[in-house]
Amino acid sequence: MTLLQQIPAKVRARLYLALGIIVLAEGAASVGYATAGNGLPTWLNVTVQVTAYVGGALGFTAASNTPTPPAGD
Fold first, then answer.
1. CB atoms within 10 A of CB 71
2. pLDDT higher than 90, residue 56
3. C-alpha–C-alpha distance, residues 57 and 11, integer Å
4. Among 4, 6, 18, 56, which is most buried by a count of CB atoms within 10 Å?
5. Which residues contact 69 (CB under 8 A, 6 or more apart)?
6. Which alpha helices (H) appear in the chain, and where do they start and end?
């Protein structure tokens, strides 16, 4: 049994949606701070780096559990 089989699909969908919303909010905050010319605050730099790391891990996990067609298709 894989990790994705242990976590129900509805829970995974909510996690992916939450991560997407967080990343969009971070992007908007980054653009806002950059446009104002104030530089990015430390908390924003930290959250962007953490979500990038978590997003990469989720992407590799999802990719490794994606069914592939049989050879020759």
1. 5
2. no
3. 17
4. 4
5. none
6. 3-6, 9-36, 42-64
Q: Is the pTM of this model over 0.90?
A: no
At 33, give phi and psi (nearest 5°): -65, -40
**Taking the CA of residue 1 as centre, how many other CA atoms within 13 Å lie in the half-sphere pointing to its CB?**
5
The C-alpha atoms of residue 55 and residue 42 are separated, in whole angstroms, by: 20
4 and 65 in contact (C-beta within 8 Å)? yes
d(CA 66, CA 56): 15
User: Is the alpha carbon torsion for 37, 42, 47, 49 positive or negative?
Assistant: positive
CB-based contact 6:20 (threshold 8 Å): no
Confidence of residue 28 (pLDDT cuts 50, 70, 90): very high
- Cα–Cα distance for residue pair 7/66, rounded to 1 Å: 15
